Amino acid sequence: MTYTKKLKAKIIDIEANKPIFLLNEKVAEDILASTNNRVVVRSAKECVTGLVDITNTVIDDYSIGIYKNQQSKLNINDGDLVEVNVMPYPESLQYIINKIKNKPLSEEEAYTIIKDVLDDKLSEAEISAFLTSLTINGLSLEETTYLCKALTNTGKTISFDRPEILDKHSIGGINGRVSMLVVPIIVANGYMMPKTASRSISSAAGTADCMEVLARVDLGADKIKEIVSDVGGVITWNGRLDLSPGDDKMIAIRHSLGLDPEGLVIASVLSKKKSAGSTHLIIDLPVGKEVKIKTREEAEKWAKKFLVISKELGIKTRVVLTNGEVPCGRNFGAALEAKSAFEILEGKYFDNLAAKACEIAGKLFDLVGKTKDGEGYDLARETIKSGKALEKFKEIIKAQEGNIFCSEDVPIAENKKIIINQSIGKIVDMDVALLTKIARLAGAPYDKGAGLVLLCDSGDELKEGDPILEIYANNLDKLDQAEEFAKENLKNIIQIERMILEEMDQ
Amino acid sequence: MTYTKKLKAKIIDIEANKPIFLLNEKVAEDILASTNNRVVVRSAKECVTGLVDITNTVIDDYSIGIYKNQQSKLNINDGDLVEVNVMPYPESLQYIINKIKNKPLSEEEAYTIIKDVLDDKLSEAEISAFLTSLTINGLSLEETTYLCKALTNTGKTISFDRPEILDKHSIGGINGRVSMLVVPIIVANGYMMPKTASRSISSAAGTADCMEVLARVDLGADKIKEIVSDVGGVITWNGRLDLSPGDDKMIAIRHSLGLDPEGLVIASVLSKKKSAGSTHLIIDLPVGKEVKIKTREEAEKWAKKFLVISKELGIKTRVVLTNGEVPCGRNFGAALEAKSAFEILEGKYFDNLAAKACEIAGKLFDLVGKTKDGEGYDLARETIKSGKALEKFKEIIKAQEGNIFCSEDVPIAENKKIIINQSIGKIVDMDVALLTKIARLAGAPYDKGAGLVLLCDSGDELKEGDPILEIYANNLDKLDQAEEFAKENLKNIIQIERMILEEMDQ
Predict the structure, then answer these.
(1) What is the ipTM of this complex?
(2) Residue B418 at interface with chain A, using a CB cutoff of 8 Å
(3) Pairing relation of β-strands B193-197 and B233-237?
């Protein structure tokens, strides 16, 4: 019972990434008769909803501007007639309003909101209001579970023919690619571990960025199943898998405001794990003043929720709190971090990154019953030492169509600058956030060869003139900027022990 | 110290209403090197900030797509080179994050946020998060004052050569154009009253819509000053005056979610009044179950804030709580409501709309000291009775270049349907929200002739077959839809007294 208007489609030769239709002011007033800015557009076969932008150029009183991606959804040509009418406010809008008023979400309401996010029935401003209300009013355990199920049920799933599918996940933006070590260690011992990982959002590189230096990571679900049944494991990007597409859409809006309420992050992580078929899972929560979780008390709250909800989903889970105060390994940047994973597997050194990987792989062995509680670490370490983990890593790279099989072959950026120390004393702290910033200024994560290598460690006694950082970049302008920033902020990046803590005048 | 890229401007022949630039994926990665989606674009003379949309059609690796309105801001032609670099997150983003964490806004922070809203440095999603945080965490009196001052100081002002500038404002979407009666009553008694009003958002018509039926309402500040110094008053649209442009921008985002926290509405109203030069102000707060403010307790909280903040701004203010449970006058829709204003001034009848106008004009007389407290009503009523208010109304219309000077000449829509009563009994209630919906289905507020006239009143004894509503519309499809909706919902629109309140089986 709404007013319908026939309009001529005018195709706009742009691939707009949002579902927007262009109307001129007069037609918009006639159809919408309100500030409700959503329309339903119907072609002979298809029906698409979207938001309206008003333009008084190019679109006349008898036309509607349709971007190329909506054109293909509607299956029409330029000049075809479409029927347009106002779309009533979606039901989910009322549920968002209720949550703003601190009324708890029901299971059905959580599902409807996620469904409408996916169907482009909610605007970015409305989704943002929802995410803000979750951040301020919080989510109960029930609401987190509902949201997690909604995200899972609106996405695709992958299933494997095996009772035990092992996995790990880390919250919070530290360097060092633990997963690239854990997967070969686990798989070399006969378990399946299909690791689907993200790209970097705010760090110097994500696991998917690093693995992409060595092999293909744009694998579909079928290819993943094939590789895993063949070699036991995979390390790939989750972005093409649509395991939790509602979550993917919300992450883009959450980022600039840091809208990361516990419940939402937990629902996001566990929905992707459930969809990927995980049965045994280690959650790594780094704790430190520069990472997402600042204190142990906070981390314990997160842990409890992870445990309850993963149990609800049927995933056997253990949470570990880890040291998020120090750099994990010495490299920042996709190629440099991939290189250090190789070097550890090749037995070149055993640093805190290697130790963390063995601890986490060990906990997975304990959890799945391969080892007695506490004995997994030794098995993990032995798997590296024997070279079995390196062999498995090469098998996985080959299965993912890669052709880099040793640390020397990892391609690092052409240009390098070395930062020299200017003061004397013992290193007491290093700022991971500032180190990440240098790597990003140098071009990470898009320039995969860009990043930095730490040439010193906490506890080292520095002399003036000691080299302390190497910065790598392919773009010379970016290299200069990263160098300039590093020099300006040196005292905060590498902190030297000082006895006078504060001084006051008069 | 950010990475800058030179790109060729490709002008897109669309007047986009948001500051968006088009980049292809590769260039976006190179410039942004993060999910930060803001850029600064510099031409030889100008500099504009905006958000990025990614498109892989039409824009190549050496170009940037620029919509027509940004083209004119940058003062460039197709093919010109522009410099593009990433815009750092605006400072205001941190203040929004703080407010989400319930940290109070300082005066400077409130100002920076409003400034960045105006300069397009914040996305709609970020503005929405800010508005949601104000809704959930609330605003203290101080924060409301800061926001009000920020909205005022970022807008234009109008000033008059007179110590007393009278004004009124009503919160909350009831029909009946009180202002069209109050202005001529006040002005006929020698005071200045420049009434700047809004168009309808959710009601059947706003004061600006109604006045536009009779005269021009798209007046600029200079024209308003000229008319007011000439005839003493004006009734015009506030939309072209930029009295509080930050507010205008936020209102569009607030609407669908009903993000109307007290503090924000109060800051919005008072900033516009301050900018328009008001010195004496009556605030009308309708209270009722279908309007914004539901209870007297709630209204008293609103009132207290209005009083404190208007005092801070130097506006002498009185707040009145009014009956928002019943229709105010019998007409809904721009032309029909304008017509009833005329009919009251012409002395054809004196209904509850006329009474409300005399009460409010009377309170203004009391407030400014023209009458002793409580005696203003009689003066207002006398000003109508004597015909002086009608004469002044015609003068104002003439000054605003109108040419309709009596109720018979107001143009109503061509087509009419009458709704007939179906049941017997006394009318105990009428639903203003449903009546508004019928008027809007008929085409209000964009079809100025559309709307409805109530043919009955609370307390009337109805017989079957009595006509109870007339619906008017220019568009026959819309008329049919409004009629259908009215017939289907008749029992809820006009409620008849019933003795059985509820019944239960077995």
Answers:
(1) 0.87
(2) no
(3) parallel
Cβ contact A439:A210 at 8 Å:
no
The DSSP bridge pattern shows strands B4-12 and B81-86 to be: antiparallel
Residue showing tokens 């999910």: B35
Residues from chain A that touch B138, judged by Cβ atoms under 8 A, are: none
Note whether A282 and A195 are within 8 A (CB).
Answer: no
List pLDDT tens digits, range B385-401: 999 999 999 999 999 99
Q: What is the pTM of this model?
A: 0.88
Alpha-carbon gap, residue B184 to A255, rounded angstroms = 53
Chain B contact for A348 (CB, 8 A cutoff): no
* B463 Cβ under 8 Å from any chain A Cβ: no
pLDDT at B74: 93
Shortest Cα distance, chain A CAs vs residue B100, angstroms: 6
| CA nearest to A68 within chain B | B57
Chain A residue whose CA is closest to B96: A257
**What part of A 76-105 touches B (C-beta under 8 Å)?**
89, 93, 96-97, 100, 102
| pLDDT reported for residue A428 | 87
* Residue B265: both structure tokens together: 């509405």
Q: Which of residues 37-66 of B touch A (CB under 8 A)?
A: 37, 53-58, 65
The residue ranges of chain B whose pLDDT is under 50 are none
CB A424 within 8 A of CB A497: no
Give the active site residues of B.
Answer: 260
Helices assigned H by DSSP within B119-261: 124-137, 141-153, 178-188, 207-214, 221-231, 245-257
Whether the CB of A304 is below 8 Å from some CB of chain B: the reply is: no
For residue B26, which of B50, B44, B52 has the smallest C-alpha distance? B52
- Which pLDDT value is given to residue A392? 98
- Each residue of B358-377: pLDDT tens digit? 999 999 999 999 999 999 99
CB atoms within 10 A of CB B382: 14
Q: Quick one: CA torsion of B413, B416, B422, B423, rounded to 10 degrees?
A: 40
A481/B1 touch (CB, cutoff 8 Å), yes or no: yes
Chain A residue with minimal CA distance to B478?
A: A3
What pLDDT score was predicted for residue B500?
79
Q: How far apart are CA B268 and CA B293, in angstroms?
A: 16
- Considering only CB atoms, A201 lies closest to which of B35, B65, B478, namely B35
pLDDT for B89 equals: 84
Question: Which residue is it, tokens 């409807």?
Answer: A112
Share of chain A above pLDDT 90, in %: 69
CA dist B393 and B391 (Å) reads 5
- Those residues with Cβ within 8 angstroms of residue B41's Cβ, 6 or more apart along the chain or in another chain: B21, B47, B48, B49, B50, B64, B66, B70, B74, B82, B83, B84
Please give the pLDDT value at position B36: 59
CA distance A237 to chain B (A): 17
Tokens in use for A140? 């109960």
Q: What is the pLDDT of residue A1?
A: 54
Of B58, B96, B258, the CB nearest to A257: B96
- Over residues A127-149, the pLDDT tens digits come to 999 999 999 999 999 999 999 99
Residue B259 to residue A136, Cβ atoms within 8 A: no
- The pLDDT score that the predictor gives to residue B87 is 84
Q: Is any Cβ of chain B less than 8 angstroms from the Cβ of A33?
A: yes
CA of A378 vs chain B CAs: smallest distance (Å): 39
Are A55 and B256 an interchain contact pair (Cβ–Cβ within 8 Å)?
A: no
Other CB atoms within 10 Å distance of the CB of residue B456: 17
A14–B17: do the CB atoms touch at under 8 Å? no
* Per annotation, catalytic residue among A80, A120, A242, A260: A260
Q: Is the pLDDT of residue A252 over 60?
A: yes
Q: At what angle do helices A388-399 and A178-188 cross, to 10 degrees?
A: 100
